[in-house]
Amino acid sequence: MRRDIVPAGADSLSYEIREIVVIAEILEKMGLPLIHENIGDPVAKGEKIEQWIRDEIKKLLDLEISWAYCNTQGIPKTREFLAERTNKIGGIQITKDDIYFFNGLGDAVAKIFGFLKREARVIGPTPAYSTHSSAEAAHSGYEHLTYKLDPDNNWEPDVEEIYNKAKYNDSIAGILAINPHNPTGSTISRDRLKRICEIAEELDLFVICDEIYSELVYSSGETTRLAEVIGNACGISLRGISKEIPWPGSRCGWMEVYNKDKDPQFAKYIETILKAKRLEVCSTTLPQMSIPYILGNEKYPAHLKKRTARYEKRAKEAKAIFDNTPGIKFIEPKGAFYMAILFEDNMINATKTLAIDNPEVKAKIESLCNGKSIADDKRFVYYLLGSTGIITVPLTSFYSKINGIRLTLLEENDEKRLEVFTTIRNKMIEYIQS
Q1: Which of left, alpha, beta for 51 (phi over 0: left; psi -120 to 50: alpha)?
Q2: Backbone phi, then psi, for 343, in 5-degree steps?
Q3: Of the residues 247, 279, 295, which one is the last residue of a structural domain?
Q4: Contact (CB, 8 A) for 235 and 209
Q5: How far apart are CA 382 and CA 361, in angstroms?
Q6: 3-state percent helix, strand, coil for the chain, nearest multiple of 5
Q7: Strands 338-343 and 328-330: what pairing?
Q8: Are strands 156-157 and 390-391 parallel, antiparallel or unpaired?
Q9: What confidence tens digit (pLDDT) does each residue in 144-160 have?
């Protein structure tokens, strides 16, 4: 082109969770059967949607309005319902006018960072979730700004690091938290989440809290919503139905905005996001309409409790397999349906390999790894894929310097799930010893 048309942050748009599938599909054509442990889709892993949920949605299909456009900000009845649910937990009180619907939280994240002034930065956790870290880096044109989650302290955020970085870097306008966290399955203690909000209030920042998994917290975890501790700080909570119903194909998420009346710049920023939504007319109608009927159903609390208990049980299964294994570190998750399995320091390097029986697959994996500068854990992920067909995601792809892999707790077949976990554990040991 006669002009450079690629934006400064284009190279930051990376999503390893799905990019590795491109490699896997090449290997599949070479005769390698695949086992997907990379994507957090409960339905794809065999979870059946309960009949009563299906019945509620079927009723809505007969309403003509469910096929039409809806209010740009979201269906008023649904927003009223969600505002009442938030108000019941205590803390800040909101109205339907503080809720904004999007075509999934990916759409919300794109708008949040896409309409933020380029010089305004948001500091987020490492390990990061790729959608957030890529969007923040792409909007600014620089590397994503991060604070550490400590694996030796249940992945809790380092609030002093947040404070010092935000205080002495005046480009930072916001703080991102993910609670429960993807990719580690950790939760943030109430005191630390409250401290993050206090820092935001003191330094005149806003808080974004991705709470898509907030209804999937284990009995061993701590449940705290941003609305409970936001105080007088400006904030945005990101929520949706894709993980808890679960209905990932609905592409239905929303943001709850807190204290926009306390800062005119923040209020103008939120209004800019709404104006951008008006250009799209509206978000998905049918999933929005279903929310009061599903989340408000008397069966819904038991539905959530059953699903959460199932993931907690699987996390304990994984602990029994991975914990106390030389060279491997396992931090038991407290929520969502992910876990991070870490390599201890100096356990892996660019000389390690795994045996691969299929010569064509072996040649492809070697071509991806040999003579190229790739992260040590990504090298392991390639060799694991080539030797077993199991697709995982390297932890360094979550904007982290810690070597490890992310696994899901979604496989519904009990025997297959335990077999996959055991195989991965054995391959990690084999890789370390190679």
Answers
A1: alpha
A2: -90, 135
A3: 295
A4: yes
A5: 10
A6: 45, 15, 40
A7: antiparallel
A8: unpaired
A9: 899 999 999 999 999 99
Cα separation, 312 vs 336, in Å, equals 9
Q: How far apart are CA 118 and CA 235, in angstroms?
A: 19
329 sits in the region (left: phi over 0; alpha: psi -120 to 50; else beta) called: beta
Q: Are residues 236 and 201 in the same domain?
A: yes
Residues present in the chain in total = 434
Among 241, 273, 295, which residue terminates a domain? 295
Structural tokens at position 305: 């409790």
Per the structure, the complete domain to which residue 285 belongs is given by 51-295
Q: Are residues 222 and 81 in the same domain?
A: yes
pLDDT of 147-205, one tens digit each? 999 999 999 999 999 999 999 999 999 999 999 999 999 999 999 999 999 999 999 99
Cα atoms in the Cβ-side hemisphere of radius 13 Å centred on 53:
18
Instruction: Cite the DSSP H helix spans in 257-413.
Output: 264-278, 285-295, 300-322, 359-369, 376-388
The type of residue at 218 is: Y
Phi, psi of 254 (to 5 degrees): -150, 160
CB 124 within 8 A of CB 136: yes
Beta bridge partners of 208: 176, 236
| Pure H helices in 142-229 | 159-168, 190-203, 226-229
Domain containing residue 67: CATH number: 3.40.640.10
Considering Cα of 347, then 148, then 217, then 152, what sign does the dihedral take?
Answer: positive
